[in-house]
Amino acid sequence: MVTGGRTFGVRLAQTAEDLGVRGPRVFDLHIGLIAFEHGASELWTHNKRFVRIPGLRVVDPFAPR
């Protein structure tokens, strides 16, 4: 199982506040921060409203190229 580190909750709350993320989009932020923390530089999702996190490129794998 992939989880955040010991201070993950604090970082999640602070990043949500910094980016103005609220409600169900906090779950997107949670996923993105976990991925970023574990070395991801890119996250694939078809969710066009996925939270943008500095340093993590969001790619829609179904978008025309």
What is the topology?
Layout lengths: L7 H12 L5 H13 L4 E3 L12 E3 L6
Parallel strand pairs: 1-2
Total number of domains: 1
List the total number of helices: 2
Oligomeric grouping of the chains: single chain
Percent of residues in helices comes to 25-40%
DSSP strand count: 2
The chain-level structural class is mainly alpha
Sum up the overall morphology in one term. globular
Q: How would you characterize the largest beta sheet?
A: 2 strands, parallel
Report the uncertain regions.
Answer: none
Q: Order of strands across the biggest sheet?
A: 1-2
Radius of gyration in whole Å, from Cα?
A: 12 Å
Percentage of residues in strands:
5-15%
Return the string of H and E elements: HHEE
Q: What average pLDDT do the residues reach?
A: 94
Task: Calculate the terminal CA-CA distance, rounded to whole Å.
Answer: 33 Å
Task: Describe what this molecule looks like in 3D.
There is one protein chain. This protein is mainly alpha-helical. The chain has one domain (8-59). 38% of the residues lie in helices and 9% in strands. A two-stranded parallel sheet has the order 1-2. The radius of gyration is 12 Å and the shape is globular. The model has no long low-confidence stretch (mean pLDDT 94).
